[in-house]
UniProtKB/TrEMBL annotation, chain A:
Protein name: N-acetyltransferase domain-containing protein
PROSITE patterns attached to this UniProt entry: GNAT
Top-level taxonomic group: Eukaryota
Species in which this protein is naturally found: Pleurotus ostreatus (strain PC15)
Organism taxonomic ancestry: Eukaryota, Fungi, Dikarya, Basidiomycota, Agaricomycotina
Keywords per UniProt: Acyltransferase, Transferase
One function term, GO molecular function aspect: protein-N-terminal-glutamate acetyltransferase activity
Keyword Transferase recorded: yes
Keyword Acyltransferase: yes
Automatic annotation (TrEMBL), chain B:
Coiled coil location: none
Classification via PROSITE patterns: TPR
Keywords for the protein's UniProt record, in alphabetical order: Repeat, TPR repeat
Composition skew (Basic residues), residue ranges: 623-633
Region described as Disordered: 43-66, 622-665
PANTHER family given in the database record: N(ALPHA)-ACETYLTRANSFERASE 15_16, ISOFORM A, N-TERMINAL ACETYLTRANSFERASE-RELATED
Biased composition (Basic and acidic residues): 43-52
Protein name in the entry: Uncharacterized protein
Stored SMART domains: TPR
First and last residues of every TPR repeat: 99-132
Amino acid sequence: MNIRLARMDDLPGMQATNLQNLPENYLMKFWIYHAATWPQISFVAEDHKGRIVGYVLAKIDDESADKGEVHGHVNSISVLRSYRRLGLAKKLMLLSQEAMVDVYKASFVSLHVRKSNKAAIGLYRDSLGFEVVSVEQKYYGDGEDALNMRLTMKR
Amino acid sequence: MAPSSKRALPSKEATLFRELLTLYETRQLKKGVKTADQILKKFPEHGGEDPSRSAMARDLPTTHFRNPVYERPVPSAIRQARRRHWLVKKGMRFDLTSHICWHVFGLIQKDEKNYEEALKSYTQALRFDKENINILRDSAQLQTQLRIYDGLVETRHTLLRLRPSLRQHWIALAVAHHLNGNLSSAKKILEHYEYSLKNIPDYDVEHSETLLYHVRILEDLGEYAEGLSLLDINSKSRAIVDRTAIMEFRARLLSKLRDTDASNAWRALIDHNSDCYEYYRGYLASKDVDLDNPSDESRAQALAILQEFASQLPKAATPRRMALSFATGEQFSDLIQQYLRSGLTKGVPSLFADIKGLYTEPQKYKAIQEAAEAILQENTPPEGQCSHGEPTTYLWTLCFLAQHYSYVPRATPSQPLPSPDFERALALLSTAIAHTPTLPELYTLRARVLKRAGDPLGAAAAMNEARLLDGQDRFLNTKCAKYHLRAGMIDEAIQFFGMFTKKDAANPGADLEEMQSTLYLIEAGDAEYRLGKLHLALKRYVAVDKIFHEMEDDQYDFHGYSLRKFNLNIYLNLLAWEDRLRSHPAYVTAALQASRIFVKVHDDPSLITAASSSVRLSDAEKKARKKAKKAASKAHDDKKPATASTADDTVENTPAKDDDPDGVKLLGAADGLDRAAKLLQPLESLAASNIDAWLVIYDVAVRRKKYLQAIKALKHAQSLDSEHAELHTRLVDFKKRASAFPQVPPAPIGPLVTTSLATLLPEEVSLETYNSLYLQRHSGCAPAVLAAARVLHSLGSAIDEVDATLFTTLADDAQLDIVTASKILDFLKAIKSSRVEEYRLTCVSRFPLSTVFMTQSELSQKQKQTAEGTTALVEAEKLEVVP
């Protein structure tokens, strides 16, 4: 699978992948907004025909309550079930994290994950080194709690 | 009052008015209305406020529309449109020469996405206030949206002249020149801008992006050395902060300069991201490997390089996979064995999808089969024993081989591959399922094999089994719903979709449509189309068009936003993408299908009445069903808590009611063909290599009596594939229509039609002969035989002659697939042939796994069974969830 920076013409494929995989979905303008504002930190994986099979969509928060520290946030990440076990999610995450530090000097990366999503939590904690900072009660539309996870970045 | 004093407000009110505009811009609407009222109380006939108050009133329900530019529009806006227009016109009656009136009118038109009219209003406003920054800025955005680039350059020029101190105005002018195709002017402006810049803060992302934009312009101008030096200077000084972008520009520019340092630059990128194909291609090209037509020598060279990478980068999959494309013979056999072994041991579900691109070469096909069979053998547990080899490797090898044996080769490769063996694939999957009954992938594969074998019902049932093994997985859910749509089980499909859509949506389909799911709309449209429900199909396809309109509107805010953010390269990419947006397969499919429906209805208007009576019928049915359901659920339980009440949903927030929910009005629209032409228009440039597009463009044009367009379409189609079956029927159709003209169309059209016709098909030959010559050339190709048979019928041949022609597709050496066979069967039915049953029965034995050739009653029976199976499984699932 080919892994590279997300381009504008990837957005419909990213949106479709998200809609096929996850219950949290976004209108096209949301995707455009992220790509146009932080064009360096979102990535895709595509198959040989150029179809998107996985993506990470990220943003930068620079005026947060967290002591004004610039940090990255992973809005959405998913890989089609039929393209699992290739390590795509990890590769996508690593590229995004690196770009957040490189371009924006992000001091940490944050994300939310469903409390029940063991596989994802395993990836973030064990493979990537994220830690749970807090639990956000009923964060998701269906009432499930979210773990707020964070990875401190070395510069 | 004199006109001048009519416009001028005393200073207190003038200040209030400026405040008012800011409030509108920042969407503080309630406050805005209050301020406007304050001014109006004192100056009731002041031209300016009325319209701006009306703009506020229109936006009031959309408060909370703060900065996020991606907020959803609020439908209630529409209801206020009439009042708003009335207010603005009232304001204009007081003062037609007020720039504010025109400005606000333009704002309203812009909000309604009526960009052309909005720009006209802005132009009027500028006549009365030539140097108004706000109006100029808004005009520039409209000109960009409308792609009026020469006008844009002018507007940006004026803005820069008025406010040269604003950095943004320089950049905006450079971008305008760029869009207008004048790169060298863009470059000059940037140079001037950079020269005059003072006090750039350290580590400034905006400045960094501007410099990268400058480098891009130099690259586009072909000034590679200048680009490289600009890049190098500014990356050394750390003015450009995006390290990946620096490396990519560097590698590309060095390659274009044929600099020996290029391969090092690509190498650095490979180290940075070792799974990006472009980097390897760049590296190989820098080593003079011709990737498109590799000689034996370059193949060997590429292979050596890639294997070197593979050993240095053990985690990278790309060099290993790329090597497979270059290797041949023995070496390929070795490499593929390692590759398969590693994938099958890891249990990579996409392994087959990954390597099937190699099946264009029969030797590779054979080598892959041998390698996989060998791995299977090693890992197969002997009868009665469980431990031998790795059980998961065994499982994934069975899966792999099932995909291999059910592979349907692409049409006529030079050396043909074996035909798919669906029985064998299913047997392998049954073994796998017996071994591990809980792996969803085994059922999704089974579903895919059944689908290919022509059994959409069995496929849907298998997909549901997969879904039940992991009910929390939306991917499996979507697949399951999609397969039910393919099987014509729309109600069941919607039920599945509904397990993941928003519960407060009117229905699952409405939610998916709102979330811009083209997958759902296309699949649902196709399903309705196959069931003959043209009105519903049309409704879905047209909804896809609406999504693409939304995406085009989405860019509007970025014409201002991106320039303020200095994200210029990505902004230009955004515009380029928007310009090609409708080349997306979902749009192409939707536009073609919708147009086909409009054509059908034009040719047979009785379809409209049939549709509307079917809607009335199904409405009655629905009511009855609802009643029954109500009764049943009442009997079942009353303890269910009331679903989240919608009571606090204000009337404002309920979307405008669709006055044509079933698409019957749309289907009967008097201007159906014009609508089709409008849908097809973007395809002429964006799908120019798609022959189906030209054929449908012809169908619509010829019925709209646009003969020159029709000829153009036929010529395009002919240049793409002159022997295409569907083109054959159209050529004959056009000649027949032309010879039946009651009078020759007036010059220049008439003579042009005559001369063009002569180039499209031979004049001296009769259509009968023309058709039989075509049939002779393609007697072994079923779609062509069907086309020839259609022409025979249209020329008035006897039914038995048409029948006899069609039955040649059943000969042993004729290649017949399920899709074509079922089309032939449909045609036989349509012409009321006496041999329908004979053809059908032959197909039943030819395609034993397929349900496509079942009789209606057999099919309903099977559908019922599948539905019952589905319900039973779903019910069982519910029981399981309840603790």
